[in-house]
Design a protein that fits this description.
Elements: H1 9-27, H2 34-41, H3 45-49, H4 55-80, H5 85-98, H6 102-113, H7 118-141, E1 144-146, H8 153-169, H9 173-177, H10 180-191, E2 195-197
Antiparallel strand pairs: 1-2
Length: 200
């Protein structure tokens, strides 16, 4: 008799999140129901509700997973140490704006739909704060300090969000990829004086 391995709680959550990603990308967030995700996951209704009570909670965990995914990429770049800490952050910001991954595509859906949904707006603000806390922790772990003198923090977030929306909605990804230096100059200027590298 074949014995099936019992999935861990983390693996079950990932199974639900994977199903939710597919549905969110197909239908958007507001039109997605828990029933849609349950059907896509292949799990029972009770099984899914044991981990998530609503689609907002799933979206939250997906976005946090996307943030962790981005930090994993940055951590590899920091270990390389061929670029300064600030240059690594600049390249990471450009990649966040211009590359493609499913997490970012879903984030773009959140940015679009929160205009019409106050609960999504609140979720966005919560995610922004949690992501910034994770970002500061990541910088400290890698010998960097984000100075209070950086007055353009909100502007950088707004710029990145605007670029993500533009790249996801318009056929401009390739054009922008060919002009990465323009974004390097812009972001270096915004970061100037706000980042101290203490790794040396």
């Amino acid at each position: 008799m074949v014995k099936f391995k019992r999935l861990t709680e983390e693996e079950r959550r990932e199974q639900i999140q994977t199903a939710a990603k597919k549905v969110f990308l197909k239908k958007g967030f507001q039109k997605t129901t828990m029933e849609d995700i349950i059907a896509e996951s292949g799990m029972s209704k009770g099984g899914v509700y044991n981990y998530y009570k609503n689609t907002s909670d799933i979206l939250h965990d997906l976005m946090i997973a996307g943030t962790k995914y981005r930090f994993q990429i940055m951590a590899k770049d920091f270990s390389n140490q061929q670029l300064s800490g600030q240059e690594i952050l600049v390249e990471a910001m450009i990649d966040k704006m211009l590359d493609y991954n499913e997490y970012k595509a879903i984030y773009a859906i959140l940015l679009q739909e929160m205009k019409y949904d106050e609960k999504l707006r609140q979720l966005y603000e919560r995610l922004k704060q949690e992501s910034m806390d994770m970002f500061f922790d990541f910088l400290q772990e890698n010998g960097l300090h984000w100075s209070e003198k950086l007055v353009y923090g909100e502007a950088i977030i707004a710029l990145i969000n605007s670029m993500i929306l533009g790249v996801e909605l318009l056929p401009v990804r390739e054009i922008f990829q060919q002009n990465r230096e323009m974004f390097r100059l812009m972001l270096r200027s915004l970061l100037q004086g706000g980042m101290e590298d203490k790794s040396e």
